[in-house]
Design goal:
This protein has 750 residues and is of the alpha+beta class. The strands form nine sheets. Strands 3-7-1-15-12-13-14 form a seven-stranded mixed beta sheet, sandwiched between helices. The chain has a five-stranded mixed beta sheet with strand order 9-19-18-17-10, with helices on both faces. The protein has a four-stranded mixed beta sheet with strand order 22-30-31-32, with helices on both faces. Helix 9 (357-375) runs parallel beside helix 17. The chain is globular. The relative contact order is 0.13. The protein binds dioxothiomolybdenum(VI) ion.
Length: 750
């Protein structure tokens, strides 16, 4: 009965609000799980396999156990330690401590000691005898006959994933221009500021986990199952969280080891990974090789798209597919995708900010650029020619709203595309160019959840939600919604979140769903409170609820202006002191789908003597529905695009050819973009369409779309500047110098 029609105008929502926990975050007083110190707490560390592929023959912990401060050591043989990982229909593929170590850094044992240094020293002192096995770290070689097999049945992860519509062969026959190119994207590593880890303790049969994760309820289910406990006996808390980007959705071996050590010692145990460990063991973006073929008519109408890809999620199953964009971003009747996923001796991949999409965009968006050139078309015009209004991937389901064309058009205008495209590239050693690339995100989220709002008699409010604020500003826009509906100042809304004991169920924060799944829930809770306030006023004023409205802290009767009461004078409120409002999420409306769209524009400068590429300008135009808070929205856009710069220009895992070990497993040798890599001219352009049907707040996701087309926009700009097509990430000086030298040898130097 509460009115959940979309907002027409808003006073607080859409205004720039600093984070409600900004002071805690910047002053260092916010307690992240990594900061947590519990009374009597032990510190733990893993002993890890140093080889790319090996079998553990013998583990001797006797010396380590006798070392100062050591309180417990667990290995594969310890009671309760045979915990399964990566379940398949034939059983688990691995264990917490698997004697068959399939990648460098696999866990072999864990130590708990009085101090972290004692724990790490003891972990190093555990005597482990390995039988080294032949390894494979190149995913194309992993498919060759005679390649070392990681699992029974070889290195192929099931049958290739196939998608097909129309008739691709016919589509290429009808094409008047065809391009066929091969793209490569090496592995990118998640490097969130807060490394992975947990602080765990048992209270009798209750397991308490303070953790850095993206969804406390999903992880509660996982840990309850591991320890055969009822859900209510597991508490997972993630109050402050220092980034995850998809790598903190899965149960951690660190959590399980800490729980076992805690049970054995009867003390809380903290197990956080070092930065170097996180490079090996807790996630990465799968590397891919993508063969892309595009066919089009002279007028730019696409006739066929084909993508054949191979990728690897490392030593255990993790999808490496990158084909979604090829199947859904542009209108095309004939599409064929075939993707093969293989095992190699490297750490398992995990979801990574728009899993598969930046890789897919790297291939599709450069191939689109190439075919535009072949057709003599502006790459922007080619894209605009092929904008769909339905999801072809879903068999023609219409979008609630599609801002793809608007992202391209408004973005081009704000960027000055036409003029920039015509500007001379420069005749000296330093040349300039501009490029564009588009994208979309492919998941509309899981709209479940409950929010509880307590409105207090003094006019303040306290919101309880299970959703995680993974560093994105979730708590802030939630407070803004309460403020919007009830007039409570944002500063007087307290948000308590992400604690399975004290907050109601919410879905994980991933898949760019947090805002559009949870904002209608929070709004419904606020509207429930509002309804109760109106009912109290109706009784007191002897009026009809339907004719009452709340404005500026006063409830007044639209039909009889003398009938009004300030909230603070509501008698029943002062008796009751607290009003509890409950908001629940409805399923998505049927028959349509709500997805965000994006276009990125880049201008680069290439020094043809050194191969150095500087990004001078970036503009991100996004259709993510309503902008709840421009400040945190911009944070997402700039953060996502900066990650796109990393993916496209600086980051790549290097596995040593001779040992299979990672050669750059640290923040010094693995280059993530810094302030010096982002352009001085960085622009965020929201295409604020206010979808009115998808949900009651008019929102869609922003986190993932913001990182999807940045790298190909930069690559297309590099091509515009130099005529060199960089098909492999990263576009770094090493690669550029090589490509420039190769061109000079061919005698076609600029
Ligand atoms: Mo994301 S990659 O669903 O956190």
């Amino acid at each position: 009965m509460t009115d959940t029609r979309p907002w027409t105008e808003t006073k607080v929502v859409g205004t720039a609000q600093p984070r409600i926990d900004a002071h805690e975050r910047v002053s260092g007083s916010a307690v992240y799980a990594r900061d947590l110190v519990l009374p009597d707490m032990l510190h733990a560390a893993f002993a890890r396999c140093p080889h790319a592929h090996a079998r553990v023959k013998r583990v001797d912990v006797s010396k380590a156990l006798a070392m100062p401060g050591v309180r417990a050591i667990i290995t594969a043989d310890s009671p309760g330690a045979k915990l399964p990982f990566y379940l398949t229909s034939k059983g688990p593929l691995s264990w917490l401590f698997d004697p068959h170590c399939r990648h460098e850094g696999e866990e072999v044992a864990a130590v708990a000691a009085e101090t972290l240094h004692e724990a790490r020293a003891a972990a190093r002192a555990i005597e482990i005898e390995y039988e080294e096995l032949p390894f494979v770290s190149d995913f194309e070689k992993a498919l060759e006959a005679g390649a070392p097999a990681l699992h029974e049945g070889g290195n192929r992860v099931g049958e290739p994933d196939r998608y097909e519509r129309g008739d691709v062969a016919k589509g290429f026959t009808e094409a008047e221009a065809v391009v066929e190119m091969t793209f490569r994207t090496p592995c990118e590593i998640h490097t969130p500021m807060e490394t992975h880890g947990s602080v765990v303790k048992w209270e009798g049969e209750r397991l308490i986990i303070h953790d850095t994760n993206q969804g406390v309820f999903d992880l509660r289910s996982a840990y309850a199952q591991y320890f055969q406990l009822p859900l209510s006996n597991v508490r997972v808390v993630s109050e402050y969280m220092g980034g995850g980007f998809g790598s903190k959705l899965e149960p951690g071996k660190y959590t399980l080891a800490a729980a076992l050590l805690s049970r054995q010692t009867g003390r809380p145990v903290k197990l956080f990974l070092s930065r170097e460990e996180t490079f090996l063991c807790v996630g990465n973006r799968p590397p891919n090789v993508l063969k892309m073929k595009v066919g089009a008519k002279k007028d730019g109408t696409l006739t066929a798209l084909q993508l054949v890809g191979i990728g690897t999620g490392g030593a255990y199953p993790e999808g490496s597919d990158a084909g979604y964009l090829t199947s859904d971003l542009y209108l095309c009747p004939n599409v064929r995708i075939e993707e093969t996923n293989v095992y190699i001796n490297a750490g398992k991949a995990r979801a990574f900010r728009a899993p598969g999409f930046p890789q897919g965009a790297w291939a599709l968006e450069q191939a689109m650029d190439a075919i535009a050139l072949k057709l003599g078309m502006d790459p922007l015009a080619l894209r605009l020619k092929n904008v769909p209004q339905v999801s072809q991937r879903r068999g023609g389901v219409p979008y609630f709203s599609t801002g793809l064309a608007q992202c391209l058009q408004d973005g081009a205008k704000a960027f000055g595309w036409e003029e920039a495209r015509k500007r001379p590239r420069g005749s000296g050693p330093i040349v300039r160019g501009v490029g564009v690339a588009a994208g979309m995100w492919g998941w509309d989220g899981d709209p479940r959840g409950t929010a509880i709002l307590r409105y207090v008699a003094d006019g303040s409010a306290s919101l309880t939600t299970g959703a995680s604020d993974i560093g994105t500003g979730t708590k802030t826009w939630m407070a803004m919604i309460v403020s919007e509906e009830l007039g409570v100042p944002v500063a007087n809304v307290h948000v308590h979140h992400a604690d399975t004991d004290t907050t109601p169920y919410a879905v994980l924060s991933g898949g760019s769903q947090t805002v559009h799944v949870n904002s209608p829930t929070v709004r419904a809770a606020a509207l429930d409170v509002k309804q109760q306030l109106l009912e109290m006023a109706a009784e007191q004023l002897n009026a009809e609820v339907a004719s009452l409205e709340l404005k500026d802290g006063v409830i007044a009767d639209r039909t009889a202006p003398e009938k009004k009461v300030a909230l603070k004078d509501l008698k029943r409120l002062s008796e009751q002191q607290t009003i509890v409002g409950v908001g629940r999420r409805r399923p998505h409306p049927k028959g349509k789908v709500g997805l965000p769209f994006v276009a990125h524009f880049a201008e680069v400068e290439v020094d043809t003597r050194t191969g150095e590429v500087r990004v001078l300008r970036l503009l991100g135009a996004h259709d993510s529905g309503r902008v709840m808070n421009p400040l945190t929205y911009r944070n997402q856009v700039f953060g996502g695009m900066t990650m796109g710069i990393g993916f496209g220009m600086t980051e790549a895992r290097v596995l040593d050819r001779n040992t299979g070990k990672m050669a750059n497993a640290n923040w010094h040798d693995y280059k993530i973009p810094t302030a010096k890599d982002v352009p001085p001219d960085f622009a965020c352009l929201p295409v604020d369409l206010h979808d009115t049907e998808f949900n009651s707040t008019g929102t869609k996701g922003i986190g993932e779309p913001a990182t999807i087309p940045t790298a190909p926009a930069i690559a297309n700009a590099v091509f515009h500047a130099t005529g060199i097509r960089v098909t492999e990430t990263p576009i770094n000086p090493t690669q550029m110098a090589r490509l420039l030298a190769a061109r000079a040898l061919r005698g076609v130097g600029r």
